[in-house]
# Entry
Amino acid sequence: MNIYINDFGIVCCLGSNKQEIKDKLLAGERSGLRLSDKFIADRAIVVGQVIDTIPDIPDDFELYGCRNNQLLLAALSQIDLVVENLISQFGSDRIGIVLGTSTSGVRSTEIALSHLATVGELPPHFHYKQQQMGAGSDFLAKYLNVSGPCYTLSSACASSGKAFASAKRLLETNSCDAVIVGGADSLCRLTINGFSALESLSKSFCKPFGTSRDGINIGEAASLFVLSRVPGAIRLAGIASTSDAYHYSAPDPAGSSVVRAMAKALEQAGLKANNVDYLNLHGTATILNDAMESRAVDTLFSNNVAVSSSKGMTGHTLGAAAALELGFCCLLLSGNESDRHVIPNINDDNFDKSLPDLNWVKLGQRLNKTINVCQSNSFAFGGSNVSIVVTRV
# Structure
């Protein structure tokens, strides 16, 4: 069964419309990464924060009033016409919603608890629902007045990738005629201080696969896609997940289960490794992840596919990362066939020569062929891996 991406919307620190984001990605812009002293006491860190104006939550949905849901509304605004048409065509009970997140609206709780400590009571607009993991999908279902399957997955940085696998199954089992799928994560102290405790935050701008890489920059984003069996310009061709269960926070150095995820996604798509034109790497800029992933990619692809991590421009958007970076792949596939520019690996550093010599995309690089097949990797704590293949139709 063919599953298509009928439309998608993305918002991140590079912008809130697809063309702006694509232009900045291809230009290698790091302007979205900025110093902030709002999240860790007595320390400024680099974060990828959305600075564009994002929609307010309507009064009728005040219960869901948090930044995470505002980011989702911003992404939804880019696909609302397609969503409305599919609701009209299939009925509200045939539209599903599956999202991924790792923080939901936790920042709202942090602000509310600060208010409680200062004033002695919680703010009147605060509700625990704002931080529940399922709040985003619940909010979108009520906002759109749809009643199909509706739920949220939370498996750290693979969350929104796993959501795509779930959405695909809903369509394949005829449980839905269309699914709104994606993810959102917003900046909060909980995760930033957690990664700081793990000594995983970079002291400056992150350097994916760089010699002096020292950790991640955390960003925020939301990405939403419309999946259906209705033919579209991009096909969700294959998706696979594996688990190596090697360590709570460190990847298996051998990367064997990552190789399996990439290979199984290609097998499901009916493709070989040499069919892939561009591979978006998880590429967090941590010592262990980059070493593992580069070895895994070398095992399956050698240096025959153009590869890069886009996190040097957006930061790591955690539960939203898989959906955001799949959106970047879709930007490449939805472009003119003669537009063969691919996303560069920006790290302001030399590539680590101890890593395999992959085909790293350089600034301004164009392929000598049309971009027809893209693949994207996302990995999470506990060895939760997902790889997705999308193709031009």
User: Anything to note?
Assistant: Residues 192 and 319 are 13 Å apart (CA to CA).
